[in-house]
Design the sequence.
């Protein structure tokens, strides 16, 4: 493996323990301003120092992430369909490798849709992306998705998707957790990172992360289960404790609850701005007396 490619991978999957906490905030490329991601900068900023890398689009990177903060970036480069369109699998490469280099990213990410109508196009696009990215030492993360007819999300189909992604040259694969997840990991020769999926209750999301890592996942790429939580910072810190701290679900959930008492809810509103002027006005009157 080329030194540059290996170095970029080590920014995402930490070499001291071989694990990764990736924060996914790329949902807007097909969902638009989804709940809790209406203002990306506001969502991302308090979570930055707790993630190992950030997965997002170039638009949100440029507008909503401080360029002076040294967070490794996994750049989504595929898209082309929206949630209201006919077929989410109809994706193509939308961002050039040249632009990714300009943005100094650590990896590229694109979706493949095994078993879907556009399976062929997404797999061939993955091959082309790997060809071009490897010229510049940039690793590729393949985000596996199965077609609606294969929506069972069981080990058989997820193993198929992950193995095909690796065969096409992906350096990492992101997929869903399932029963017998060890089968998915064992049959995939590159690191497997687990997707958070739809929003779960916090303990259930921590259990998902724990089970996946203990079944061999290299880490998590969570989005909604972190920033749609009422307490996003305690949640990402609890997830981090599982991935990098080797704590169990109870310990992580206890940590989450303890941190919630110390951390403001994202729904908490700042104190009224009118309170200070009132006090100032009162002080002025006292001075006049």
Sequence:
């Amino acid at each position: 493996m080329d030194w540059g490619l290996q170095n970029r991978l080590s920014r995402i999957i930490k070499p001291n323990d071989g694990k990764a906490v990736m924060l996914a905030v790329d949902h807007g490329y097909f969902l638009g301003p989804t709940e809790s991601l209406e203002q990306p900068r506001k969502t991302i900023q308090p979570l930055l120092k707790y993630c190992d890398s950030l997965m997002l689009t170039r638009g949100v990177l440029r507008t909503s992430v401080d360029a002076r903060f040294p967070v490794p970036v996994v750049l989504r480069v595929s898209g082309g369909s929206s949630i209201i369109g006919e077929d989410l699998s109809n994706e193509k490469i939308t961002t050039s490798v040249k632009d990714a280099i300009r943005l100094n990213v650590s990896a590229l990410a694109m979706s493949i849709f095994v078993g879907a109508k556009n399976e062929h196009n997404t797999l061939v696009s993955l091959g082309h992306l790997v060809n071009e990215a490897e010229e510049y030492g940039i690793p590729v993360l393949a985000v596996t998705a199965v077609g609606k007819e294969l929506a069972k999300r069981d080990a058989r189909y997820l193993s198929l998707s992950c193995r095909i992604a690796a065969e096409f040259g992906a350096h990492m694969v992101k997929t869903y957790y399932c029963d017998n997840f060890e089968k998915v990991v064992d049959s995939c020769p590159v690191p497997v990172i687990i997707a958070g999926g739809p929003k779960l209750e916090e303990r259930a999301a921590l259990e998902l992360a724990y089970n996946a890592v203990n079944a061999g996942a290299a880490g998590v790429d969570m989005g909604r289960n972190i920033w749609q939580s009422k307490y996003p910072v305690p949640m990402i810190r609890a997830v981090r404790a599982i991935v990098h701290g080797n704590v169990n679900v109870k310990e992580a959930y206890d940590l989450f609850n303890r941190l919630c008492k110390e951390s403001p809810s994202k729904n908490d509103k700042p104190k009224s701005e009118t309170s200070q002027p009132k006090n100032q006005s009162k002080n002025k009157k006292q001075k006049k007396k």
User: Anything to note?
Assistant: The radius of gyration is 21 Å. The longest helix spans residues 119-135. The chain is about 45% helix and 15% strand. Residues 87 and 104 are 32 Å apart (CA to CA).
